[in-house]
Every structure is written in structure tokens, then in C-alpha cells.
Specification:
Keywords: Nucleotidyltransferase, RNA-directed DNA polymerase, Transferase. It is a single chain. Helix 12 runs parallel beside helix 14. The radius of gyration is 23 Å and the shape is flat. It has 350 residues and is an alpha+beta fold.
Length: 350
């Protein structure tokens, strides 16, 4: 496979820096650090161009914090200046990787996403189980602690399968090596733009093994979660063994013990939905979190603006599944509570 050169020159143009600023600032224009950067925007962008061009860019310190939804994760966020520089680098190298990625890998890619991944799995289940009338089994795979386990040497080798520009690789290597509080030589921080791309690059090794070596037809991946469908249970067990061996021996990764083979007719949990051949449901946890938000609103523990933002987001997610009766019940509960509050003078009608 021919590697691509001439990428470093694309990174340090002022036009690329300006585009990167707007991407990094999207939906964050009134954040304090974005406003501060904007006060001397031209000088900051010129500095970024010079540091990238002369290879003197040094990544800033991480801010480390945890999020608990949808599950507990450790997030490592860079200063805004560094996020602009990462966009400058990704704008140049991203298209090189993108054109060689597996079409049914859906995480952190333009035009893809969770809903597209869910739609593809739902389509396959319908075609196989309803149209063809097959009894289908699913291998639900999960790579354990994926971001924190990616080996730097393996990732750098994979980058070099695509890119032959030494200066671009130098910048990429420096970002990989500056992995915050993670152990030396392993792990990329959740929250970095480059980490999203690099995780897809490294995951593409698994995609190629599954498609080109095992020749599996019905395989879909969303970052560290993947689903394989087959009417042959024994074949699926053999594939599971081969995949686990490949991950451990070739990629230095491990399958999560929660990974399992199940009968697809009982529902396949993937990308926030439980997929059946003729319908989709949301996870019970999604409904539980929505009801919890309503409870906190009623108790005065959640302001209306924050609630509305979370409520619309949750409804958007649930709207892709068969949740009409659930969402209507919650909607009527809210309307009744608002009516009572208005009647008692505790709530001013909008």
C-alpha cells in the first residue's frame, strides 16, 4: 500500500489554522478560554502555524475529570490552543485514513454515528430473520479499556502504513507520547480529537482481519463495541476464538469478559438500543435517567433550562426506537405537574 506524503505543508497554512479555530470553537464561542483566544486570534493562529511548521509545537497540560453518563469515563481535556492545533493536524491526515476505513465502522466519522450503526444492524436483522427466515445468533464483542490499552508502538506502526511524511509523523508521535496520566508507552486520552482518529486507525486492523482473513459478511463496529451475525452457532464460536487470539497476539488488546454469543431474537444490545428483527427498544437505563431528570425538576434540584436541554436530547435518542407510549406517559406526567404548579401559582405559564 502506497503511503501519502506532502501532508505537513497542508497543516501549517493560515487558512487551515483559521478553519481549525472555527471547528474547535463550534458551540463553545462564549466559553472563557475561547473568548480569551479570540482576543488575540490572529497572533495565536500565526504562532500555531509557526510551531507546526518548525516542529516546535509542545502539547499543553491536560485537565482531568470524570463523566458518569452513559458510563463512568476518565476525560482528559487539552487547552483550547492545543485543540486548534489538533484540528490543524487532523484536517491534513484525516482524509488519508478515512478513505481506507471499513464502511461499517461508525464511530467519530462524518456521516456515520450511533444511529447509522443502529440502523445497519436493524436492517441486517430484519433481512436475515424476517425476509430470509433464518435463526440468527450474534457475537456481541467489547474490547476491554480500549483507549487506555492501545500500545503506542503498534499505533505508530499502523500510522506508517498510511503516511510517509516524516514531519507529519513526528508531530503525530509527539501527541501519542504525551498521553497525560496514562502509563508510558500505552493508552491515548479519551477526549482528544486525535485520539478519536487514532482509535479508529488502530481499530481498522481488527476490521481488516475480520473482513479479509475471516471473510465475515455481517460485521458492524462502533469504536470498541462490535456485533457479528451468523446463522451458524459453531462458526460464530470459532470466529470468537480467532478474534480473541488476534486481539491479544497481534494488537495487544483483550476482549471484555462481558462479550458473549446470544440468540439475536432475544434482542441485541448495541449503540444504546435493544435491536429485535421488527422493532427497537431503548435500554432501561435511558428511560430511568429521563424519569430521574423529571423527578429532579419537580424537586427543584434541576433548573428548567438545563432540564429542557437534557429532555430534548433524551427524546431525540429515544425517538429512533419504539418508545411512543413511554415518552407520551412522561410527557403527560410533566403537563399534569405543570398544570398543578400553574394553578397553585408556583409556575408562571410560558
Amino acid at each position: 500500500m502506497k503511503t501519502v506524503k506532502g501532508l505537513h505543508e497542508k497543516m501549517h497554512t493560515f487558512d487551515n489554522a483559521n478553519i481549525s479555530f472555527h471547528k474547535a470553537a463550534e458551540n463553545k464561542r462564549f466559553h472563557e478560554e475561547v473568548l480569551a483566544f479570540s482576543m488575540s486570534k490572529e497572533d495565536e493562529l500565526l504562532r500555531a502555524c509557526e510551531e507546526v511548521e518548525t516542529l516546535t509545537y509542545s502539547q499543553g497540560p491536560y485537565t482531568v475529570f470524570k463523566v458518569w453518563e452513559p458510563k463512568e469515563r476518565l476525560i482528559m481535556a487539552l487547552p483550547f490552543y492545543d485543540r486548534v492545533v489538533q484540528h490543524m493536524i487532523v484536517n491534513a491526515i484525516g482524509p488519508v485514513f478515512e478513505e481506507r476505513f471499513y464502511c461499517h465502522s461508525y464511530a467519530c466519522r462524518e456521516g456515520k454515528g450511533m444511529h447509522a450503526a443502529s440502523n445497519q444492524l436493524y436492517k441486517w436483522l430484519y433481512e436475515l430473520m424476517v425476509v430470509q427466515g433464518l435463526r440468527i445468533y450474534a457475537f456481541k464483542g467489547d474490547i476491554s479499556k480500549y483507549f487506555a490499552s492501545i500500545p503506542h508502538d503498534g499505533l505508530k506502526d499502523e500510522n506508517r502504513r498510511y503516511i510517509g511524511d516524516k514531519k507529519a509523523l513526528y508531530l503525530m508521535d509527539n501527541i501519542i507520547d504525551r498521553n497525560g496520566i496514562l502509563p508510558d508507552g500505552v493508552g491515548i486520552p479519551v477526549g482528544n480529537l486525535t485520539s478519536q482518529l487514532f482509535a479508529n486507525v488502530y481499530g481498522n486492523r481488527l476490521d481488516k482481519f475480520i473482513k479479509h482473513t475471516l471473510h465475515i459478511k455481517y460485521y458492524v463496529r462502533y469504536m470498541d463495541d462490535f456485533i457479528i451475525l451468523s446463522p451458524d452457532l459453531n462458526q460464530l464460536k470459532e470466529w470468537e476464538k480467532r478474534i480473541e487470539e488476534f486481539l491479544e497476539e497481534e494488537m495487544k488488546l483483550h476482549i471484555n469478559p462481558k462479550s458473549t454469543i446470544l440468540y439475536a431474537g432475544n434482542g441485541v444490545d448495541f449503540c444504546g438500543y435493544i435491536h429485535h428483527p421488527t422493532y427497537r427498544k431503548v435500554r432501561k437505563g435511558s428511560v430511568r435517567r429521563l424519569k430521574k431528570d423529571v423527578k429532579h425538576l419537580k424537586a427543584g434540584e434541576l433548573d428548567r433550562e438545563t432540564f429542557n436541554r437534557k429532555y430534548q436530547s433524551r427524546l431525540g435518542h429515544m425517538g429512533h426506537a419504539d418508545t411512543y407510549h413511554v415518552t407520551k406517559a412522561i410527557e403527560y406526567d410533566l403537563l399534569f405537574w405543570e398544570f398543578e404548579q400553574t394553578q397553585s401559582g408556583l409556575l408562571v405559564p410560558v
